[in-house]
Amino acid sequence: MRWWGWGHDGVSFTHEDKPALGGFLRQRIDLDVSGVTSVPVAFEDLRITEPSLSPGLQAALEQALGGGPASTDPLDRLEHARGKSLRDLVRHRRGELGRLPDVVVRPGDEDQVAAVLRAALDADAVLIPFGGGTSISGSLEASEEEERTVISLDLSRLSGVLAVDAASRLARIQAGAFGPDLERQLNARGWTLGHFPDSFTHSTLGGWIATRSSGMQSDRYGDIGDLTRAVRVVTPAGLLVTRPVPSTSTGPSVREMVLGSEGRLGVITEATLHVRRVPEQRIILGYLFPTWADGLAAMQDIAASEAAVSVTRVSDASETAFSFATRKRPSILDRLKSKALTTYLRRRHGFDVEAMCLSFIGYEGSRRHVEAQRKLVGRIVGRHGGVCIGSSPGELYDQKKFDTPYIRDFLL
Amino acid sequence: MRWWGWGHDGVSFTHEDKPALGGFLRQRIDLDVSGVTSVPVAFEDLRITEPSLSPGLQAALEQALGGGPASTDPLDRLEHARGKSLRDLVRHRRGELGRLPDVVVRPGDEDQVAAVLRAALDADAVLIPFGGGTSISGSLEASEEEERTVISLDLSRLSGVLAVDAASRLARIQAGAFGPDLERQLNARGWTLGHFPDSFTHSTLGGWIATRSSGMQSDRYGDIGDLTRAVRVVTPAGLLVTRPVPSTSTGPSVREMVLGSEGRLGVITEATLHVRRVPEQRIILGYLFPTWADGLAAMQDIAASEAAVSVTRVSDASETAFSFATRKRPSILDRLKSKALTTYLRRRHGFDVEAMCLSFIGYEGSRRHVEAQRKLVGRIVGRHGGVCIGSSPGELYDQKKFDTPYIRDFLL
């Protein structure tokens, strides 16, 4: 992950292959795309303070890591200093780095996590758990005035799917597993977690739990709180283990105290999660509604209906216009189809093209099931004046759905 | 509710109209039904201690209740002393009453609950919230050694459905509402909560939340934890109100600390719950499986399938035999049908009648939806050697499902 922005080096969002975008941005937010995007301060020009790390603590950390390194590398420290909120990015790009962590450690198992925590407690140091670094709540950043040593505990080495219990449909997964890796491991055994937050490609299971994440397919799979059936947390008071069973109906929920705790209670090392079989079919269809109110009413009716869907989203008119403005240079056929669609919507359905709202609805399961749900949804959409525009926009959405954060870097 | 057992006066379970039950009980647990059930000590013979209630606290409570009574009536105190666990009943019937509450109060609104709590705090008294009195966890009973005044706070006057937000499908309901009353109020507006624990007829919403209740239709509606979106709790530190929204995805859950808290954190006065439209159709079908393992495997497959069901339960062979043994005197037609069924199961399907397991599966929704789910389930049941035995056993189960606790009184 880039220290000054989102995602992989070499991947970026640009207006150059999107002929309508320049005009749209000028008209809507008075931004001239031909001007230069603000350039982040070069890494070499950053003022990176010396780490505050006593030889004793350094030795204790390295012992906790079984001899592994306690990194004080400047780039490592910089990359672990903050999350990816707008505020984080603006300050980082300006070179306003705040209180960098002094040292980054990457334990290889739960015992090493516990040993690192003990070393931190013994030295009265600050320990900040770090998953994928996509936090937008400021939880990765130490206070500017912090005088104690700040340790960033990176969980990326704890990335395994440890076991799947097919009868209970529960998987034990380590907290440092990134979204794509976690799904790959589960898919290889025929299972899926089905949790797809916007940050999916660059965030981890532990981060999802610590921030009580919600995903694009939570209509079907539930939020991370619904999926997480048990946690293991290394805390200053010892190892906290909640019972890894599919369901309980007694007592206050300790699991629900850990969910959303933002790393405050300890370091989540592992969780037991409800998994499902990889569906036979998976499609996302695009729909258009005449107005935002129509789209919203349709979504509510779908939620209250007997239709089982995996994704329901509807954009307001501004977001819809933005989506259309980001289309790449269309072929002549595309343009003809698009013109025909616009004419059709205006003449046949009385759509005001400025007010219309784009919606995506996803379906998963056996072919028969998907077909039945599409019909149920189709009737509801029709009642609210909506029109299905087929699977191509949905496929595009599905391919690009994790790329939205790149747009922010382009706009900064 | 009877102080020594379950349910309404005049309702009881008897072997007299069940010709097969006597033999079954003799064979299985060596119990002779012609012998006399142990008779509870008569109310008049109970040793009910004088209440320990200072005139000052009595006056403070009556003021908190707006002049209403603070009851020290012996039967009132007895009925509020315990829940309905086996241990509670055995001791009550023997006349071993333990530490009775000294006084019973019935506030009429949340302000009165808060005023009662303040009076209790000021007098260093013990306050025990009381819903329907069906607790099986011992939470209604003060310690035998308790020397402070014990106040039982009965919430039955807080019984209203206050509002239904149709767009968010959320209902605000007072904590003292009993199951049947709550459903009646919701049904009258076209809604249902769909929470049906075994104790339904004699338990309250606040009790369900305080004990983290699970119900017979939780397959469809979720447990009370899933249904409860927000709570209002009068605590010693003030009124605790969680945000009444359908869903959140930040922070640890305070709501989930109140769920299952057994009255420890305060008095739940109101909750906001997810409600659904009353379904067009509702049926429960009976199924038979050759063995417990087959039945269990079928239930797991149904849970993992695309079928949406409202009830899934399967009895083991003993419970199945008990169910058949509790049938009332059958008509000649019944006997012929039953004999034909047994022969059919043995000859056609190779069932061992001693090993077979009875199952009930419920369906709800539009007729089309119910029909589709029945077909899906039918295929799964068939794969595990199960046979549908129609709707009559399911109707009987549905009528009698809340009467099971009466059997315990009969057996004591």
CATH architecture descriptor text of the largest domain in chain A: 3-Layer(aba) Sandwich
Poorly predicted runs of chain A are none
On the 0 to 100 scale, the average pLDDT of chain A is: 93
CATH classification class of the largest domain in chain A: Alpha Beta
Oligomer: homodimer
- Largest interface by residue count? A-B, 33 and 34 residues
Helical percentage of chain A: 25-40%
Largest sheet of chain A: 5 strands, antiparallel
Domain unit count of chain A: 3
Radius of gyration of chain A: 24 Å
CATH superfamily of the largest domain in chain A, called what?
FAD-linked oxidase, cap domain/gating helix
Please report the total strand number of chain A as a whole number.
15
Strand order of the largest sheet of chain A: 5-6-10-8-9
3D structure, described in words:
Two copies of one chain form a homodimer. With 412 residues, chain A is of the alpha+beta class. Chain A has three domains: 38-154, Uridine Diphospho-n-acetylenolpyruvylglucosamine Reductase, domain 2; 161-277, 2-Layer Sandwich (Uridine Diphospho-n-acetylenolpyruvylglucosamine Reductase, domain 3); 281-411, Vanillyl-alcohol Oxidase, Chain A, domain 3. Helices cover 36% and strands 18% of the residues of chain A. Chain A contains 16 helices and 15 strands. Chain A has helices at 21-29, 55-64, 74-79, 86-94, 110-122, 179-188, 205-210, 218-221, 224-227, 255-258, 292-304, 317-325, 332-349, 367-383, 392-400, 404-411, and strands at 70-71, 103-105, 126-130, 150-154, 161-165, 170-174, 191-192, 228-235, 238-241, 267-274, 276-277, 281-289, 311-314, 357-365, 387-390. In chain A, the strands form four sheets. A five-stranded antiparallel sheet of chain A has the order 5-6-10-8-9. A four-stranded mixed sheet of chain A has the order 1-2-4-3. In chain A, strands 13-14-12-15 form a four-stranded antiparallel sheet, sandwiched between helices. In chain A, helix 2 runs antiparallel to helix 5 and helix 11 crosses helix 14 (367-383). The first copy, chain A, is globular. The mean pLDDT of chain A is 93. Chains A and B meet through helix 10 and strand 11 of A and helix 10, strand 11 and helix 11 of B.
